[in-house]
Amino acid sequence: MNRIEKNISDLGNKRIGPLLAKLAIPTTIGMLANSLYNVVDTIFIGRGVGTLAIAGIGIVFPIQMIIMAIAQLFGMGAASMISRSLGKKNYEKAANIAGNSFVAAFIFGTIAAILVFIFLNPILKMFGATENILPYARDYLSVVTFGFIYFPFLVSANNLIRAEGDAKNAMIVMLLAIGINIVLDPIFIFTLGLGIKGAAYATIAAQFVGFLYISIYYIRGKSSLSIKLHHFKMKWLIMKEMISLGFASFIRQVSMSALIIVVNNSLKIYGGDIAIAVFSVVNRVVMFITMPLFGIVAGSQPMFGFNYGAKKMDRVKESLKTSVLSTLIIGAIFFIAFMAMPSKIISLFSTDAELINNGVFPVRMVILLFPLIGFQMIGAGFFQSIGKARPSIALSLTRQVLFLIPLILILPLIMGINGIWIAFPIADFLAIIVTGILLAREIKKINKLELAYKDN
Questions:
Q1: pLDDT of res. 436
Q2: 37 and 181 in contact (C-beta within 8 Å)?
């Protein structure tokens, strides 16, 4: 049995605990590396350019997340379809799905890049840039926009590599890219004196290397999917299902972007430039520590989809239980660490005393229910993996759109700027309750399917 056959066999036969470790650990490392793009840029920019520059990349961040949303729309939808197709041993369909997702990522990424170039300044102002922050945000965005052409392919294809059980190569892509980013950042920012533009050049260069690695991966036949030219022909039925299933991930990313826009504009009213810089740092810290949870979700999704397609419902339930328990443990560890020393963590990004002092309360509020956040994330990923788009979309909308954004608009009217930060744990609590209700209902349906399959 070769490596490719073993990856597919493991999804349906390997013990759940070791299988989750095999898929989630490399995925987590890769996602942490991906998140380090923003963390590393922020550290170098904060110490090399200043607090306003940190605020500038905070304004650009939701735009980058929209590009990520485009990638996830096709990547996560295709990954769900490919996992279930491999479970049913329909390899030709899996290759068609991959080819369609690649073409779609390139087309929509290019369109997004063109639109951002045309409307650069209006977009930045709409996203919360003040007159002081705008020059920094414009310098950074004008460069990273070039990467929008190929970055969606990088993210989308990486999801497909994980979907076929090859988490190792998905990890290597991200580690390679972040390694290059870390090396180039100080060279471009300090040695060449490019400032915030230097960080942007380092980012798009690192992303391009990741793009090249994945291209070579498929060209040399390292994938279990044998993708030929005819697989790149767009097919409506494939695209329809892909978009339907990927829409949950798309909504989750876009709603997160919308949330950041709302927060930045609210902070502009209640706190000014320093408050926007605080949120830029807090957001990067939270995004980074959330990556291990995303790693568990991404690692478990091929297990959910493959075994659901193979009608192995006992493995589906065990995968769900093990994944939730794993996120609870990881969430609790980060919660304890960050509650104990928030000021030390913020000081990694800047020596600005005002920034550090103003960041302690926001960090503690945003991670107050962090141990339970993974449960909500697993729920959305689970429904997406088994092909049920509606509950996945619903769970993707609950926290940011249905609960958090309204709370951020209402609570500051009563409590001032602290109301913005207190809104986060309240929204988390409500979203966790909704997730529990939907998952309980679905498990009952899975139990019935398990009995039906055994009878047959």
A1: 94
A2: yes
